[in-house]
Amino acid sequence: MWEGEGPPVFMRRGLAFGGAEGDQLGEIFANAYIRGWLAAGRIIMNKDLTVGKPETVLWKFCLPLFGSIIFQQLYNIADSLVAGKIVGENALAAVGNSYEITLIFIAFAVGCNIGCSVIVAQLFGAKKYIDMKTAVYTTAIASGALCVALMLFGILCSGGLLGLIHTPEEIFADSELYLDIYIWGLPFLFFYNISTGIFSALGDSKTPFIFLALSSLANIGVDILFVSTFHMGVAGVAWATFLCQGVSCLLSLWVVARKLRGIETKGDITKFSFSMLKKLSAIAVPSILQQSFVSVGNIMIQGVVNSFGPGVIAGYSAAVKLNNLVITSFSTLGNGISNFTAQNIGAGMLPRIREGFKAGIKMVWLLCLPLVVLYLVAGGWLVGLFMNEPSGSALSAGMQFLRIVSPFYFLISVKLAADGILRGAGMMKMFMAGTFSDLILRVVLSRVFSGWLGVTGIWCAWPVGWAIGMLLSVAFYAKGPWMEKRGREKQP
Questions:
Q1: What whole-number distance in Å separates Cα of residue 28 and Cα of residue 4?
Q2: φ and ψ at 262, to 5 degrees?
Q3: Burial of 251 (0-12, 13-18, 19+ CB in 10 A)
Q4: Of 95 and 20, which is predicted with more confidence?
Q5: Among 72-86, 355-369, 395-409, where is mean pLDDT lowest?
Q6: Mean pLDDT of 319-327
Q7: Are 55 and 321 in contact (CB under 8 A)?
Q8: Distance CA 282, CA 280 (A)
Q9: DSSP for 115-167?
Q10: What is the C-alpha to C-alpha distance for residues 464 and 11, in angstroms, rounded to an integer?
Q11: Burial of 35 by CB count in 10 Å (0-12 exposed, 13-18 middle, 19+ buried)?
C-alpha cells in the first residue's frame, strides 16, 4: 500500500519515454484516470448500509455495482468481438475456448473477494475497525501466496488443460497463447478483486464502477490498436486485457490504502492473523469451491460443445458471452445483497434482511424483462456481431442457445438473490448445496440430452439445473433467522 497524496510514483515515472517527458506524460495519464473523479483528491465516502430504508439503500448501493459488471463484461465481449471481426471465426473460437479455463482462476480470485468482502462488511457494520484492517492485511497476504501457486500451475498445465476439453487442432495454438498471457496477469486479477471486495464491504460501489468504466473503454481501444494496427492477432487481445487490468489494479490498491488510512483506529493492527484467516477461509473456501466447480462444470460442458466442431464452438462462444453478461449481472447484484446482509447482521438488524431480499427480487426482475425480450427477438443479430462472416452452424447454435436459455433468467435471478443472503449470513453449506445441485444437473444432463437431441440437448440442460437450484436456495433462505419476527429495527 502506498503513502502520500498523489498517484503511485510508478504511475508517474517514465510510462513510455523515460526522463522528464515520461514523468510529465505519466502525470497527465494518472490525473486523467483518477483526479477527474476524486474531487480535489477526496475519496468517495464509505456507506453504512444499516441505516435508511432498506429498499432505497440497496437500490443506491447496487445500481453502481450493476454498472460495474456491464463494463467488466466489456473486457470479455471486446476480446471476442475484436477476435471474431478482425482476425476470424477460429480466433473467436480460440478466445472463447480459453475463456472457460480462465474461469477457474477467476473462481479463486472471486472467492478471495467474497471472503474478504463478507468479513470486512460484518466488522465494519459492528464498528470493529482494528479487526477489519487485520482482515484486509490477512487477505492480501494469503491471496498473494495463492496467486503464486496458481500461476505455477497454469504455466505448467495450460496445454494439458486445453487437451482435456478436446480443443480442436486448428484453434489449439491460439488458445494456448491466449491462456499463457492471461496467466501472467493473475496478480492483477487477484488484487483488483480484493480491492473491489473492500470497496463493496465499506458501502462504496461507485469507486469500482469508475475504475471499470475507464479501464474497459481503454481495453476496447487497445484491443483494436494491437489487433488491427499492430496485427498481433489473438496475442494482441490478451495483452490488451493484461495491460488495462494491470493499471486498474494498481490504482485501485492506491485508493484502498487511502480509504483505510481515513478510518481512524487506536492501537496496534496485526498484519497477519491465523484466527482471522480461519474466519476468512470459512467464507472464501466454500466460495472458491463453488466457483471452481462451476468453472469445471463449464469446462466439461465446453468439452461436449467442442465435439460438434469449430462452427458450433464459435456460435456458443458468442452466445455464452451474452449469457454471461446477464448471469454475472445477477451475481453482482447478489454480491450487493450479500454486503447489505453482512453489515446488517454485524449490526444485529435482522428484520432489514427480509426487506432487502424483496428489493433484490424487484431489481433482478426489472433487469430480466428487457434482456429476455432482446435475446428472443434479436438473438441471431447479436450473435452475428461477434463474427465477420459467420457460418450457418455458428449462427444457428448461438441463436438457439439464447432462445432456449433466456426465458429462464427469471428463475436463476431469484436463486442468485437468495444466494446473496445466504453468503452474507455465512450459511455456506446451504449456499453450496443449491449451487452444486444446479451445476451437477447441468453437466450430467448436457451429456445425456446431447446424445438424444444433438447440440440442442446441451442448451436444454440449463433451465432444468436453474429451476432445481432456485427451489433449493429459496427454501434455505426461508429457514434463516431473519424470518423470525423478533426485535425491532433501529431507526435512522
A1: 18
A2: -75, -10
A3: buried
A4: 95
A5: 72-86
A6: 85
A7: no
A8: 5
A9: HHHHHHHHHHHTT-HHHHHHHHHHHHHHHHHHHHHHHHHHHHHHHHHHHHTT-
A10: 49
A11: middle
Q: What is the pTM of this model?
A: 0.67
User: What single-letter amino acid sits at 410?
Assistant: F
Whole-number Å distance between alpha carbons of 159 and 400: 31
Place of cell 450457418: 392
Kindly provide the b/e burial profile for residues 277-302, where b requires at least 16 CB atoms within 10 angstroms of the residue's own CB: bebbbebbebbbbbbbbbbbbbbbbb
**Beta-carbon contacts of residue 238 (< 8 Å; ≥ 6 apart):** 79, 177, 178, 181, 182
The grid coordinates listed for 36 are 477527474
User: In whole angstroms, what is the distance from residue 244 CA to residue 29 CA?
Assistant: 13
At 139, the pLDDT band (50, 70, 90 cuts) reads: very high
List CB contacts of 293: < 8 A, sequence separation 6 or more: 435, 436, 439
- Tell me the Ramachandran region of residue 7: left when phi exceeds 0, alpha when psi lies from -120 to 50, beta otherwise: beta
pLDDT confidence of residue 147: 95
255 CB contacts (<8 Å, ≥6 apart)? 34, 38, 43, 195, 207
Would you put residue 380 in left (φ > 0), alpha (ψ -120 to 50) or beta?
alpha
* 430 closest CA partner among 359, 362, 478, 363: 478
CA nearest neighbour of 316 among 456, 416, 106: 456
Would you say how long the chain is, in residues? Answer: 492
**One-letter identity of residue 143:** S
